[in-house]
């Protein structure tokens, strides 16, 4: 289960700021937000996200009247609904599950209040870790190939009895191994 570093009080303050500042397209979504604020345990499992909400198992999108986005969307495992009743029922019955919320309102992307409560997408972290691992593997494979190529050239220099080429290539091999160890 994903733990949040953002306090429930910060989440509650943000929701209250949002409700005070913006007129919602779907007024029933305000009831859901107020319900979340009253339940400390549930609010601890609420995570605000900015984008890629479809990457999560359960969430909702709430829009203000000032946007062109859908008023309200709730989803669970890629099943979507615009019914606040179904959303409220699921939230009440599945209190142990994390709930991800994305807000749409003017300048949301640059809003410091929103930025202050955002949760980083864990899938992005995994992707970055995977990319770093792939980069490290490719670097190692390149290193291994360079070693093999130098060893072949060193064998050739020995076969040709070319001492200067042998010395140059062994020094290059040693330098490459030292670089890889640092």
UniProtKB/TrEMBL annotation:
Coiled-coil ranges from the UniProt annotation: 133-167
Transmembrane feature ranges: none
Sequence ranges assigned to domain IDEAL in this UniProt record: 137-173
Keywords associated with the record: Coiled coil
Gene3D superfamilies xref list: Uncharacterised family UPF0302, N-terminal domain, Virus Scaffolding Protein, Chain A
Name of the molecule in the record: YpiB family protein
Organism (species): Ornithinibacillus sp. 4-3
């Amino acid at each position: 289960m994903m733990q949040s570093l953002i306090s429930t009080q910060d989440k509650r303050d943000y929701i209250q700021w949002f409700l005070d500042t913006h007129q919602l397209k779907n007024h029933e979504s305000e009831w859901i937000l107020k319900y979340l604020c009253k339940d400390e345990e549930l609010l601890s499992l609420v995570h605000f996200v900015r984008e890629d909400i479809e990457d999560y198992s359960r969430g909702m999108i709430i829009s203000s009247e000032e946007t062109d986005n859908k008023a309200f969307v709730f989803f669970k495992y890629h099943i979507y609904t615009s019914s606040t009743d179904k959303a409220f029922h699921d939230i009440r019955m599945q209190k142990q599950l994390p709930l991800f919320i994305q807000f749409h309102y003017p300048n949301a992307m640059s809003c410091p209040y929103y930025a202050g409560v955002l949760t980083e997408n864990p899938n992005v972290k995994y992707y970055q870790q995977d990319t770093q691992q792939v980069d490290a593997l490719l670097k190692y494979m390149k290193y291994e190939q360079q070693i093999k190529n130098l060893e072949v050239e060193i064998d050739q220099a020995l076969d040709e009895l070319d001492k200067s080429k042998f010395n140059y290539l062994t020094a290059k091999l040693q330098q490459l191994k030292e670089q890889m160890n640092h």
